User: Which sequence fits this backbone?
């Protein structure tokens, strides 16, 4: 893998002065068990990733209950051990000591009991008193109802937690009192209130509206449903994979899920409409009242973890390094036929740390520091010039695995295009103003996985617009030319970035992770030059 850093200054003459250096990185390694369910695929797999997590073969979706236990990181995930399509869902289990290199263990939970005979679906882990980890998960029972179940480690002295036992009390929570049995799933990590009771949220939909149902328990076995959900919305449908956790208002560390610290904000995340949306608010533990700052999709608000391909995420508190870490599922863009042919589908995002921004209005994320520790060899380039309307190829490297950092400093915005008030959908705006469309300030950015003739490329770029009171920065990821094949989805993603370009650099970090793909990284700028 290659590390690339570019510092770009844009002068009035639209000349980019570039200084950058490259670092070759070691690959993330997965050590796989060689039983029938985990045998590796042939080595000729150029589109498998180099340091994202993915199993050796078959289907994977949601991350489940990641945790840190006795010096070991655990990742459970939804997995079909028999095919590269969804079905026969189990809880697969892998462990790591650095969140980069992984060892695949035996499957932790498989369907087979009346309460989960049709699938062991998503859930979470929670630490009970005495640092005892347990799993809450959704099972699809004999009637295809969704119920909530408990599993415990067979041997707590085993730091790898290789064996899990389902509770004889299952199911713990069932869809009663009018709850839709097909929309009742994905329990969160539980937290303990000042009264000693445990609390957990379960995703639900009622009359077409998303809800997070609240349950309480004294012993983690017998649960009672609160009369009211902790939160609901008339603007959304089913809430999948909810998450509920505190973030520090002015700290640099993560916060444990059951923390009662007054200097925190609470995050409620819900997965719907193929994206992970979140709201910030104030949670009162005594009354279980959650008052949001701005509700889901209210008054133009659209806070998301990620505006690209990222879904069904889960966070956990890393007690070893006092940080909160975010995982998310990335769905394959290939069609089902291609997935079956190549023998695998799905991967996990690069894990990210997550904190509250200085303004307190949104969350900020950054790839784990462990990724940077993989860097090996440094190569540097300095004082390269790139004029508007041209491109610069980073030559002499194989850029199939790269860690790219780019910073843009613009000296003037007077000629920036006026922002139309109707441009409220960044994804649509990126689709209309692709990387080939010139404007006064933009596009500028990078082309990754670019073929020699540029027939295949993925453009990641910015534009700056001028409004009445400030400047608006648009970021786009254009996959419309990522492949010449007809089958894959080629989505264009976009987001407005909360940044003041007058006083801050526009920075981008891109992690490119294919195993063997002989392509280039290219910086470009296309402006309308007077």
Assistant:
């Amino acid at each position: 893998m290659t590390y690339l850093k570019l510092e770009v200054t844009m002068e009035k003459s639209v000349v980019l002065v570039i200084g950058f250096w490259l670092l070759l990185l070691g690959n993330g390694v997965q050590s796989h068990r060689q039983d029938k369910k985990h045998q590796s695929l042939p080595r000729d797999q150029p589109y498998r990733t180099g340091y994202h997590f993915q199993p050796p073969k078959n289907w994977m979706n949601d991350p489940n209950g990641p945790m840190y236990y006795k010096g070991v990181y655990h990742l459970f995930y939804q997995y079909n051990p028999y095919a590269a399509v969804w079905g026969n869902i189990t809880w697969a289990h892998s462990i790591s000591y650095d969140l980069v290199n992984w060892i695949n263990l035996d499957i932790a939970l498989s369907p087979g009991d009346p309460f989960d005979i049709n699938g062991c679906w998503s859930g979470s882990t929670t630490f009970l008193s005495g640092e005892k980890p347990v799993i809450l998960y959704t099972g699809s029972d004999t009637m295809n109802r969704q119920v909530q179940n408990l599993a415990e480690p067979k041997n707590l002295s085993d730091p790898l937690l290789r064996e899990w036992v389902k509770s004889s009390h299952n199911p713990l929570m069932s869809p009663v009192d009018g709850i839709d049995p097909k929309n009742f799933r994905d329990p969160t990590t539980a937290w303990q209130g000042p009264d000693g009771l445990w609390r957990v949220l379960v995703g639900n939909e009622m009359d077409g509206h998303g809800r997070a149902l609240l349950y309480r328990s004294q012993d983690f076995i017998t649960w009672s449903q609160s009369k009211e959900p902790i939160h609901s919305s008339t603007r959304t449908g089913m809430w999948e994979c909810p998450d509920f956790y505190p973030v520090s208002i002015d700290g640099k560390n993560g916060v444990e899920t059951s923390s009662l610290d007054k200097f925190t904000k609470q995050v409620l995340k819900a997965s719907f409409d193929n994206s992970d949306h979140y709201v910030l608010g104030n949670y009162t533990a005594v009354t279980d009242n959650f008052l949001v700052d701005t509700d889901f999709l209210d008054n133009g608000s659209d806070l998301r973890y990620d505006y690209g391909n990222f879904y069904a995420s889960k966070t956990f508190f890393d007690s070893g390094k006092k940080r909160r870490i975010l995982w998310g599922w990335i769905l394959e863009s290939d069609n089902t036929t291609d997935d079956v042919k190549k023998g695998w589908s799905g991967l996990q995002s690069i894990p990210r740390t997550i904190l509250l921004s200085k303004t307190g209005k949104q969350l900020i994320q950054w790839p784990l520091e462990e990724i940077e520790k993989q860097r090996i060899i440094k190569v540097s380039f300095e004082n390269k010039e790139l004029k508007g309307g041209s491109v610069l190829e980073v030559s002499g490297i194989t850029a199939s695995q790269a860690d790219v950092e780019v910073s843009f400093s613009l000296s003037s915005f007077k000629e920036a295009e006026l922002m139309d008030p109707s441009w409220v959908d960044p994804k649509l705006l990126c689709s209309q103003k692709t990387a080939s469309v010139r404007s006064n300030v933009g596009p500028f950015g990078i082309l990754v996985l670019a073929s020699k003739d540029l027939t295949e490329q993925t453009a990641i770029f910015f534009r700056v617009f001028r409004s009445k009171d400030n400047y608006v920065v648009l970021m786009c990821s254009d996959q419309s030319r990522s492949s010449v094949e007809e089958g894959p989805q080629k989505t264009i993603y976009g987001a407005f970035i909360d940044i003041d370009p007058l006083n801050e650099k526009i920075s981008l970090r891109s992690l490119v992770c294919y195993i063997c793909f002989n392509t280039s990284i290219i910086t470009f700028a296309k402006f309308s030059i007077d």
Residues 12-20, 32-36 have pLDDT under 50 and may be disordered. Residues 462 and 475 are 5 Å apart (CA to CA).
